[in-house]
Amino acid sequence: MWDVADFEAAAYTTVAQLSAYVAASGRGHEPVVRTRPPAELAAAMDLRRWLREGGMDQDTYRGFLATYLAEGTRLHHPAYLGHQCAAPDFPAALADFVHGAVNNPMAIYEMGASAATVEFEVLRWMLEKAGFGPGGGGVLTHGGSLANLTALLAARAAVTPAAWEDGVPGDLALLVPPSAHYSVTRAAAILGLGRRSIFPLEVDALGRIDPDRLPAALDRVLRAGRRPMALVASACSTGTGLYDELRPIGEFCADHGLWFHVDGAHGASALLSEEHRHLLDGLETADSMIWDGHKMLGVSSVAAAVLVRREGDLDRAFQQEASYLFYGDRGFDSIGRTVECTKGELGLKIFLNLAWRGERGLGEHVAARYATAHRLWRLASERPGFSCPYEPQSNIVCFRYGSADLDQAALRRRLMDDGTFYLTSAEVGGTRHLRATVMNPATTDQTLEALLDAVTKAAN
């Protein structure tokens, strides 16, 4: 089935085309995004014929791959300022290539001892950076949504250990700011808590938790006859890139016996930057946190860490038996800590980026993206017609152009339709804003000036 000569030839073609694709994307000469309708794209790639007849060879694969790449979104493009996905560095891409060939699903140690060991050491490094110490534990998952779910499973096991056997009691509650990532509310539903278990925390005008109003929030939960299962903070918020003040929140949780979970999916990488690590002051007081490698560590999607301060808490999150998997000494298996049974070699992606760039290099990458975002804020603040609701703390900038009744979502659509810039959008204080996320080292001051010019032109 595996023809080595065919593989080598196709791999050569793949590397050559990907190299050209990344280089062209970095120069910014191609549209950053294309969104042709699926029917047109399916026809352009001749998908139905290939699905039914097969027969692709080296020449037809070359043509298919060229079309496939041309019709996608170019994350290496300087004008990519969209969602929080990295413009992946090549060491992580090599890891994906290796995993695609060897396919070692290492949640069971004997299925991939080298991959599992790499993950163990990556997690040990992350725990140290988070300040969780030698007693902590962790696991890598396929994405931050699964990571948040896993952390909250650990919180549920700590508060109500019998839930796995007896079902979820109806009196549990989660204290969550409205600005939290949607995956937290989704996790509450998956866990059987229901949306009514969510008690919104009081926040400031920019969506950050107000520590002084935490006693009143806890009192509301208790007066409703509920038991608090966890309090969730953001480091940083997905919408605005602003950090909750972790230390006073953590101290409040410790004083009242509350599980403290920090969603650091995007912003925990600031731990590597001397200039920005203060934004996570107090992280060590958390009981659990998540940290995505596929955001600010330059890793391809997806690789997210669940970290807990006490290793046993994660081991109690799942209480599963399956005779074909769990028998004898489970040794170094991590399957007992994850939703996934078959799990990719996620640690290799983070490890190779670290091994190539170093901890300091990745920290400089984070600091440089934060600095570019800060320059965008300054440029927009100084331009007529633009307004910014806050000074950014990370690489996420929200801004508006024009009058209060100008449709910012329509403005974004115009920029995307011609492929010049890829932005997202978010509400801040109930008002719709354009949202730029600086992920790419190729994004320069020239890019930022061109963005503001393009927004002005599209509005007028």
Automatic annotation (TrEMBL):
Enumerate the InterPro entries for this protein: PyrdxlP-dep_de-COase (IPR002129), PyrdxlP-dep_Trfase (IPR015424), PyrdxlP-dep_Trfase_major (IPR015421)
Q: Which family does it belong to?
A: Belongs to the group II decarboxylase family.
Q: Which residues carry this modification: N6-(pyridoxal phosphate)lysine?
A: K295
Which Pfam families does this entry report, sorted A to Z?
Pyridoxal_deC
Q: Which SUPFAM superfamilies does the entry mention?
A: PLP-dependent transferases
- Keyword annotations of the record: Decarboxylase, Lyase, Pyridoxal phosphate
Q: Which GO terms describe its molecular function?
A: aromatic-L-amino-acid decarboxylase activity; pyridoxal phosphate binding
In its UniProt entry, what is this protein called?
Answer: L-2,4-diaminobutyrate decarboxylase
The answer, when asked if Electron transport is one of the entry's keywords, is no
- One GO CC annotation, please? cytoplasm
List the cofactors: pyridoxal 5'-phosphate
Q: Does the keyword Signal apply?
A: no
GO BP annotation list:
carboxylic acid metabolic process
Organism source for this protein?
Answer: Nonomuraea jiangxiensis
